[in-house]
Amino acid sequence: SERGVETDKEKIKALTTWPVPINLKELRSFLGFAGYYRRFIQGYSNIAQPLNELTSGYLPLKNSKKKPTKQQGTLYHNPSESFGERWTQRCQETFDQIIRELTSAPVLGFADSKLPYILHTDPSIIGLGAALYQLQDGQLRAIVFSSQGLSMSKMGYPAHKLEFLALKWFVTEKFSDYLYGADFTVVTESNPLTYILASATLDATGYHWLSALSTFSFQLQYQSSLWKHRSSAMSSRIK
């Protein structure tokens, strides 16, 4: 619309009467629908994690390239059977929250290539989240939200490495179409990240990530709370 990028109101309306999923097929249908609109939900991967976890423990689909990883003799869940007690209160709360988030989703702004971007990353031990903003007509407008789950190995990363991973992934992959060739500011709540990029000794993975970031031009700004307590002394220029 003229206001910006919006969800399809008629399709989203169907969520108000969406039945609670009782088996794998119904849950996958719901997650597929919600995932299509994930750009409108900040931190979608973290929010949806309890429901995504519920899809594990089943044999891969016949057309899937994934192979069973469980040891021989381990029983898999029957995809046609009800979740039963595995559908916990946390699952119900997650289901309800996703519906609330989508039925009240914000109108995202149209990206203006003439204006600088502001990227805020929000990593956690279960997933990476980010929001891309622009200051348009005196108002901070969200352009797009994105999130990404983590593998078991990455869940063990320390906080500063998760921040580094989030920076690399969102800048060089997810938002590269917006950010390549543009000047932008990355707002981070991780003080150690500024030190890592400026002077710390990096391992091979760190150098690979830094090399990927070197083709982008941005300022890294540390803030103890988003949009508050600006600390220009912690900013450094990365090119």
From TrEMBL:
<feature type="domain" description="Reverse transcriptase/retrotransposon-derived protein RNase H-like">
    <location>
        <begin position="87"/>
        <end position="186"/>
    </location>
</feature>
<dbReference type="Pfam" id="PF17919">
    <property type="entry name" value="RT_RNaseH_2"/>
</dbReference>
<dbReference type="InterPro" id="IPR041577">
    <property type="entry name" value="RT_RNaseH_2"/>
</dbReference>
<dbReference type="InterPro" id="IPR043128">
    <property type="entry name" value="Rev_trsase/Diguanyl_cyclase"/>
</dbReference>
<protein>
    <recommendedName>
        <fullName>Reverse transcriptase/retrotransposon-derived protein RNase H-like domain-containing protein</fullName>
    </recommendedName>
</protein>
<dbReference type="InterPro" id="IPR043502">
    <property type="entry name" value="DNA/RNA_pol_sf"/>
</dbReference>
